[in-house]
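Invent a record, attention on tokens:
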Amino acid sequence: MGGQPLFILDEDAQRTHGKDAQSSNISAGKAVSESVRTTLGPRGMDKMLVSDSGDVVITNDGATILSEMDIEHPAAQMIVEVAETQEDEVGDGTTTASVLAGELLAKAEDLLDDDVHPTTIVEGYHEASQLAQEAIDEEVLDVDLDDDTLVEVAESSMTGKGTGDVDAHRLAEVVVEAVRHAKTDNGVVRDSIEVHTQTGAATSATELVEGVIIDDTPVHDNMPTSVEDASVAVIDAELDVRESNVDAEYNVTNVDQLNAALDAEEEELRGYAQAVVDSGADVVFVTDDVADRVASQLAKAGVLAVESVSSSTAKDVVETTGAKRLGSVDALDEDALGHADSISVQKHGDEEVTFIQGGAAAESVTVFARGSTDHVVDEIERALNDALDVVVAALDAGGVVPGAGATEIAIADHIRSTAASIEGRKQLAVEAFADAVDVLPRTLAENTGLDAIDALVDLRSEHESEGIAGVISEGQTGVIGDPVEYGILDPAAVKREAIDSATEASTMIVRIDDVISSS
């Protein structure tokens, strides 16, 4: 064929293939995993993330850390997706999944150096993940998921996270109360639970509100700031003079014509206010603007009106009070009104918020989270949302298992005991998976102040003799003990999802042997 070169790729394209590609991808995945490893457990450390604009986030939440990091490497991005998947599915365990994915890559790198084929590693990892799921099923505790147990689950999730001046137990009780309120015959309606944060008080002031809290306040200063036994209207329209859709000019030739136009305008505005008053509504939420003259007339009638509420806020009000969402005041009557035990405007710090409590529909509850600074309330909000998610997962998705690394020790032991029956080089991958799972209790031990190797030996010995062993944070160090006795419990769903997502991400990266990037 004459020996002429054949160009398939653009001359500016970059290609990395073979072991170089595998090494680059694995190194990137491991680096991202290592960035969150020190945050794991009750003695985990926080990270400070500073954006280009100077915004600061202080957290030890794995999903938040990884989402805030400016990561460009495609393989590293896959580890971020592991955390995102974990967060979306079960709401917690993001650091666990990320650390496990990184360690699976590290063990795979060792196997590749020993000339184990990537496909063999993938097959071994998938078989080991199935064994891990079996072990998790065996670890599910046969206990009633009563309030005390669920408080332990919520508290285990929040321990080590920033909870201000109050211990996790107090917040865990609020979380469980919220979940119980949102529980139905078909499970917990997670969307019915909101977390509203407000600076200006200590974290101990956090409370549960049976209803919703909105940032919108009355449109007129003379309106009432508290209404008991309130009849509520929700209007999806503008309470102002209607504008013509036609571009037209009107010639006014005398004062009588001008006065007639003004009278008509005034009559229209008075009609809006009168329609609200005649319906019997004490409080009206409007998604658009309310004219000053309408607001003034409503204030004189003792009606509390809130304007420019968002569509989502209007939806929350409807779900809480049972009001009908109307497109105009023309359809407003007694049947369209909802009800709330009380609606009050309260000042917290420098800001005012509106509480809608004891609604007739009463489907929504709000955890009103307090904190002294924006950084504090942001971290408390993350901790509360994680706790809410794990309690829901415990109730709706398979019960609870021992925490503190005990379940991971059981997983690794179960995989190793089965690995001997697996033939060929796949056995090496299965054993490597078990070794990778050990990174979780080992990291817990490190972060607690124990010697990682000694702790791992003690954990295996205790598990062998007692059937359960975890790393318990106690004082300034840690001890090996039974996490169930210490009330350290995790949802089984969190463990299952962490195993699945970490396995899928690591095996996908291991199979890549060619990276082609365009200019």
In short: The chain has a mean pLDDT of 83.
